Amino acid sequence: MSQSIRVAVLGAQGRMGSAACTAIEQAEDLELVARIGSSDHLEGAAEAGAQVVVDLTVPSVTKRNVLWAIENGIHAVVGATGWDEDSLAEVREALGGSPATGVLIAPNFAIGAVLTMRFAEAAARYYESAEIIEMHHPDKLDAPSGTARHTAAAIARGREAGGLGSVPDATEKDELGARGAVVDGVHVHAVRQRGLVAHEVVQFGGVGEQFQLRHDSFDRVSFMPGVLLGVREIASRPGLTVGLDGYMDLG
């Protein structure tokens, strides 16, 4: 029997972190060696012998956590949001000094959400119009969500591959911002409402038809298969990977 992978969870006291701890403890091939909360020192993960840290913290600290993990030669599976291109560039640079270390930054760990992003890229080349509505609980700190940003980027790639220009929109006046944010040329609308967890609707429109993709996470347990996939695969995936689809056989 192969040796268990030793895992530490950062943000262990949060809802996602708590769910991740439970999932790791229930997995026969994984061992939870440290629960790191906001008042704990990161060194506790290294002292516990963690081979992988799962970062489910907040945007203000996640980059610092990942750079610390790289410096210590610990793989990092990251679900915290707030990453931009400059931050990703810092991670790539740091990984240059630790080439065997892997970092996975996943905008969404739900398998259905990953498939929605991939399907959206495939569909985008065939429809003149495309918009995204993302819906989350009101305690979410960022908007639009990382998933929506990732989806918009996928749609933009699909539109470029299909030779499409800008999404048609004759709006000349929008003083209140009713048309939402524009991410990679795609309008994104963010809803924050009590009772929601994580939901996304991608709408495509063509002459005489509408095509809609929708994914709903009703419980944070829906993210755990993706978290466990990342933990199990990351040692064999050195370097930076953005998006769980990089670990999935999607062609």
TrEMBL record:
GO terms for molecular function: 4-hydroxy-tetrahydrodipicolinate reductase; NAD binding; NADP binding; oxidoreductase activity, acting on CH or CH2 groups, NAD or NADP as acceptor. One of its GO terms (cellular component) is cytosol. Residues 112-241 form the Dihydrodipicolinate reductase C-terminal domain. Coiled coil: none annotated. Its EC number is 1.17.1.8. One of its GO terms (biological process) is diaminopimelate biosynthetic process. Keywords: Amino-acid biosynthesis, Cytoplasm, Diaminopimelate biosynthesis, Lysine biosynthesis, NAD, NADP, Oxidoreductase. PROSITE patterns: DAPB (PS01298). It comes from the Bacteria. Gene3D superfamilies: Dihydrodipicolinate Reductase, domain 2, NAD(P)-binding Rossmann-like Domain. Pathway: Amino-acid biosynthesis; L-lysine biosynthesis via DAP pathway; (S)-tetrahydrodipicolinate from L-aspartate: step 4/4. NAD(+) binds at residues 11-16, 79-81, 106-109. It is found in: Cytoplasm. Its main location: cytoplasm. NADP(+) binds at residue 35. Pfam families: DapB_C, DapB_N. The active site is at residues 136, 140. It catalyses: (S)-2,3,4,5-tetrahydrodipicolinate + NADP(+) + H2O = (2S,4S)-4-hydroxy-2,3,4,5-tetrahydrodipicolinate + NADPH + H(+); (S)-2,3,4,5-tetrahydrodipicolinate + NAD(+) + H2O = (2S,4S)-4-hydroxy-2,3,4,5-tetrahydrodipicolinate + NADH + H(+). Residues 5-109 form the Dihydrodipicolinate reductase N-terminal domain. (S)-2,3,4,5-tetrahydrodipicolinate binds at residues 137, 146-147. Belongs to the DapB family. Homotetramer. Catalyzes the conversion of 4-hydroxy-tetrahydrodipicolinate (HTPA) to tetrahydrodipicolinate. This is 4-hydroxy-tetrahydrodipicolinate reductase. It comes from Brachybacterium endophyticum. The gene is dapB.
